[in-house]
Every structure is written in structure tokens, then in C-alpha cells.
Amino acid sequence: MHRTFAILNQKGGVGKTTxxxxxxxxxxxxxxxxxxxxxxxQAASSWVLGLxxxxxxxxxxxxxxxxxxxxxxxxxxxxxxxDVLPSTPALQAFESGGSxxxxxxxxxxxxxxxxxxxxxxxxxxxxxxxxxxxxxHALLVVEPSSLGLRGIGGVADLIDDVxxxxxxxxxxxxxxxxxxxxxxxxxxxxxxxLARIVGRDxxxxxxxxxxxxxxxxxxxxxxxxxxxxxxxxxxAVFDSLWRRVRGVVHAAQP
Length: 254
Ligand SMILES: Nc1ncnc2c1ncn2[C@@H]1O[C@H](COP(=O)(O)OP(=O)(O)OP(=O)(O)O)[C@@H](O)[C@H]1O
Ligand SMILES: [Mg+2]
What we know:
- The chain is of the alpha/beta class and about 250 residues long.
- About 40% of the residues lie in helices and about 15% in strands.
- Helix 1 (about 15-30) crosses helix 10.
- It is globular.
- The termini are close together.
- Bound molecules: adenosine-5'-triphosphate (ATP) and magnesium ion.
């Protein structure tokens, strides 16, 4: 499962979906095949990618039940290169139960994509555990504020636990910093604190700035790259992060 990333943090609203969608936008722009697995019952990434769970005959909950993703994976509205395994509020039922089903579901299809990104819910329950069991790479999204760093220990413990119990191939690919102000002593101190926990090298660069265009893109269900020069800096940031994702995939042994 060397192409699969779990994009996670137990904290809500830190930018897991923004990172997933920004990377999907960069992959689409580069003409690369990508699968977004929406593992959040809120179904935000499915919706932004043009899919409404209410209109779908089948969602990821059915795929997990049937143990097959055939007929459930949909093409996104963004690009023929971006596919989605869409979510549904019914996915909440999978917060308890076995954690290996998602891995079994993705294993036969992973090779069809350059990368598979699992957008996790804001919890450390069974859904996030399933994502970490299916993925080779854990990608944490963190806001460098005092509240943003709270709970990182719990995420690290879950990664250790999954590594021990179900997935010895799991590695921390890195930490993406979101909503980083251009100049802030406070953010700088928190990044230093984070570096002491995960190691300086684990913190990916460049950080994602705070920009209203991210909100706008979600509201209009559009990829960041469709905004051209209006989103010049955020686009450059996500192009760099996408190159990093590809680098991690290419460095990982199948
Ligand atoms: N760098 C940013 N600049 C401005 N707005 C942002 C930024 N990152 C995220 N947001 C906005 O903050 C809100 C929460 O972000 P997002 O949905 O990506 O977080 P999340 O971690 O996926 O949340 P949840 O835990 O609920 O799944 C969204 O409205 C998003 O557009
Ligand atoms: Mg989200």
C-alpha cells in the first residue's frame, strides 16, 4: 500500500480536507491519477469534488459492506484523473468494528493511481484506525498554535499502536503546517515545539498560508488551480506539496 496516505488529526477544522483537496487540485493540474477516499461521515471532500451522497446509489459504506469498490468509485467533477470513493453520514456506523476492511478494499485498486489520499474524520476512532491500517504513509495536518498542538500525543500514540497491531509498514511521512502567518513569534515557537516531538525533518515545507481563497474554493466546489493568478501563492504551495507526495511514493518500496 505504498501509494496510500492517511491525512489525519483528531482535532477538527485544522485543514485535513483542505490539504486533501489542494493535493487533488495539484494532481489534476499535473495530469496525474489520484483517488480521494472520503472517510469522513461529514462527506465534505466528496461534496467539493462534485458528488452529493444523497444522489448516489452506493457510497464507501456499501463498498466496505460488500468488500468491493467496483461501481462505487466515481469520477470527480474536477478532472477525469481524479476519482472519489464517496462518503455518507451512514459511515458513522463503522466507527466501531474491524479496522482491516478498508485495506482489503483498496489493495486491488491502489496501483491504478499515482497516489491514494484518505481524508480522515476528526477522531481517533475506528475510521482513522482503518485509514492508518490501509496506508503506508501518515500525513498529519497541524496548525502551529497552542490549541493546534494539543492532542498531537494522542495521534502519535495511535500511529504507534496501529504500527504494533495491524500495519508494521506504517510510517509518519510528515507534518503539513496549515494557517501559518507570514510573521509570528508564537507560530515560530509552536513549530519549534512540534519539531521537538516529530523531528525537524518531518515538518514539510512550504507551510500553507491563511487565505480566503481556500474558503471560496470549497463554497464554489472548484479546484484551487482554477483560480489562476488569484491563487498564485497557494497554488505554488500545493504544487510543492504534491511533488513531496510523489517523492515519498517513489522512495517507498512496493
Ligand atoms: N489555510 C487556510 N486559510 C483559510 N481558510 C482555511 C485554511 N485551511 C482551512 N481553511 C478553512 O477552514 C475550514 C476547515 O478546514 P477543513 O475542512 O479543511 O478542516 P478539516 O480538518 O478537514 O475539518 P474536519 O475535522 O471537520 O474534517 C474550511 O472552511 C476551510 O476552507
Ligand atoms: Mg475534513
